[in-house]
């Protein structure tokens, strides 16, 4: 595997969105993904609250309010690509929200497929000396990486089949860890931080690969938020234990920056 720095450095450019029309006010916008899209712990919470712990100030809500879009937010904390493609207990597949009337779709997914946040949380729990901690999960296998790429591709294909006039933008994962090393805010050893950094880099790389292969848009939240990692002077991500919101998740500042970047990508960029 290449180094994290090489992977991130090679993926700085935004992918174009093609010649699809810009979503107009009142257009249907479907937001799909995991907790990095849902915004757990960020006020104000959805009313009534549900197990997906979505915030009404996550990046999808901020973007929808800015442009008067009709938002259907089906992002859900803990979701994997399987939960976009298929049901999750009482929840319908997230893709069921996408139909011919949809004009914009954003997707942030993949980290839970390879236990990214679970690994960060378990590692920090053990390192901090907490009395009860979950087991540190196994590292992703080559088969799991291949499966993630296949499912991301299926998601893109399904969105385009169900909503041929919709713009699809993959939004990758915000950067929580510094480019190297660790810090007190993380409660991680250097080895734990490097392991999670590599996993995150490959989620970012695979997301970019699928976006390019399927002709989808890509917003690199990873690059956008890297200067504001949890160890920075102005962090946009929580460490462990979290100051506010969920551990190892983006803060309100990150969601606001992503919404602003999506606005620029979709509405300000020449087709």
The CATH homologous superfamily corresponds to SGNH hydrolase
Residue stretches low in confidence (pLDDT < 50, at least 5 long) are 1-16
Helix content: 25-40%
| Shape-level CATH architecture | 3-Layer(aba) Sandwich
Rg from C-alpha positions? 17 Å
Morphology call: globular
What is the averaged pLDDT score?
Answer: 92
CATH class: Alpha Beta
Q: First CA to last CA: what distance? A: 35 Å
What's the domain count? 1
Biggest sheet details: 5 strands, parallel
Strand-residue fraction?
5-15%
Number of helices: 9
CATH structural fold name: Rossmann fold
Output the structural class: alpha/beta
Q: Which key features would you list for this structure?
A:
disordered N terminus; Rossmann fold; alpha/beta; 38% helix; globular; 271 residues
